[in-house]
Amino acid sequence: MGLKLLAGFLTLLGLAAPLHGQSLDASACEKLASLKIEHVSLASRSVGAGEFSPPASPAGGVPNAPQAFANLPAMCRVTATLKPSSDSDIKMEVWLPVSGWNSKLQGVGNGGWAGSIFYFMMANALRGGYAVVATDTGHAGGMGDGTFAFNHPEKLTDFAWRAVHEMTVTAKAVIEAYYGNGPRLSYWNGCSTGGRQGLKEAQRYPSDYDGILDGAPANYMTHLSSHSLWVAHATLKDPASYIPKEKFAALHKAVIDACDGLDAVKDGVLENPRQCKVDPKSIECPAGTDASTCLTPPQVEAARKIYGPARNPRTGAEIFPGLERGSEMGWGALAGGPAPLSISTDHFKYIVFKDPQWDYRTLDFDKDVAKADEIDSGLLNATSPNLRAFFNRGGKILMYHGWNDTAISPENSLNYYNSVQAKMGRSQDVVRLFMMPGMAHCGGGQGPDQVNFMGALERWREQGIEPKVMIATRTVGPRVDMTRPICAVPQVATYKGTGSTNDAENFACK
């Protein structure tokens, strides 16, 4: 995860209520080290205001930018190692505000294959008055490195679901020991793998959290990995189909030129990309020529495959939805090579085939995807639409996904949302989905990407105020240059016809 994506995550984290309550002395923190919890070893120490310095990030892990930890309040920092199986080595941390605890717990998620704690998310939650917990999911390494799972089924189980559940149970016990009572409410906050973790919690352990903030979930992991390699097959398997970076810009220009006005606002952002039907053939190079402003016939076919869903070649069934028009400037990670995303190749190398030498070019989108599903059998995938137990105890899930996401196709979130609606009938009572025009993976991109989602989730869960529309902002440096409403599916923001198109007041959800 680069600094731009880190900034995207930071902008998506809403603040909770102002700090209040009494302070606790250092001895209360020190005593936590002697707390007895099965399979858990604890250490604790007091950290004064502004004194926290994060550990070094592992190679390929989340960069711990210093500005993310400036001016942190005083806390009791609890570190723990959990060993629920003979091969488990789960690291976790709980940060407890010394004063002003808001009586809530916030669990924060990971990205990719995890391998480190997202300290920047912990910092933001602590500033909001939360007791906050996070885990490395049971191994140390980069987010693109899945080697930990090779012949280590218990570590894979820890990554899949066990680490998050065990850290949550442990955190609640630590909180009760420190404050004298457990959290009044518990919230989850995660995007990408963190989104998958949140859905897995709701499906498997519905009493762990009361509200779940769920961004761009990697919840259909076997098919997500397959889709990543579908794109790699389209552009990397045959050199003639490779699309150079400068041609992404040419295709993006063609899309924006043709479709930007469909929402009655020309701002370089497609409010609803599914209305756009531009065919890459529209910029096909004249026969026998090539240039940075056009696509050769093999490149046209490759682009069509990227827009289209990954499909089973035998049955025609959709494996995973394609990328949306308007997202072309972000295609490089999946389509630009020189190799596919290691997150996806490692899934097949170390989990499906258990062969470090496996070649992505040999992937069979019929038999091998079926094999991946059979091996997973619900371990990593979090696709169950049955949220009845979570719903019955008042649980709420607020989902969001950027239309320009290229790491996880945005329609995947729509598919899950619709499956819940079909299963439960009253899905909007428990799940709300917000699609964000122009936003990339978990943040960034060309559209407004800064929203106080956590505040909206809290008001929904605690006050019954349903999230129907929220205001997103886009900043350039220190300046806000655009505000725009984002609307709960199935509505979209529609321009009223007068006033600045950079002002949310001139739009309505319809």
Quick structural overview:
The protein has 14 helices and 15 strands. The chain is of the alpha/beta class. Helix 6 packs antiparallel against helix 8 (297-307) and helix 6 (221-236) crosses helix 10.
Topology of helices and strands:
Layout: H1 3-11, H2 26-30, E1 40-47, E2 75-82, E3 90-97, E4 104-108, H3 119-127, E5 131-135, H4 153-179, E6 185-191, H5 193-204, E7 211-215, H6 221-236, H7 245-259, H8 297-307, E8 310-311, E9 318-320, H9 332-335, H10 342-352, H11 367-376, H12 388-392, E10 396-402, H13 411-424, E11 431-436, H14 453-463, E12 469-476, E13 479-487, E14 493-495, E15 507-509
Parallel strand pairs: 4-5, 4-6, 6-7, 7-10, 10-11
Antiparallel strand pairs: 1-2, 2-3, 3-5, 8-9, 12-13, 14-15
Helix pairs in contact: 6-8, 6-10
Q: Which terms would index this structure?
A:
14 helices, 15 strands, nine-stranded mixed β-sheet, disordered N terminus, alpha/beta, 31% helix, two-stranded antiparallel ribbon, 510 residues
Structure description:
The protein is of the alpha/beta class and 510 residues long. Helices cover 31% and strands 17% of the residues. It is built from 14 helices and 15 strands. The chain has helices at residues 3-11, 26-30, 119-127, 153-179, 193-204, 221-236, 245-259, 297-307, 332-335, 342-352, 367-376, 388-392, 411-424, 453-463, and strands at residues 40-47, 75-82, 90-97, 104-108, 131-135, 185-191, 211-215, 310-311, 318-320, 396-402, 431-436, 469-476, 479-487, 493-495, 507-509. The strands form 4 sheets. Strands 1-2-3-5-4-6-7-10-11 form a 9-stranded mixed β-sheet, with helices on both faces. Strand 8 (310-311) and strand 9 (318-320) form a beta hairpin. Mean pLDDT is 93; it is low at 1-21.
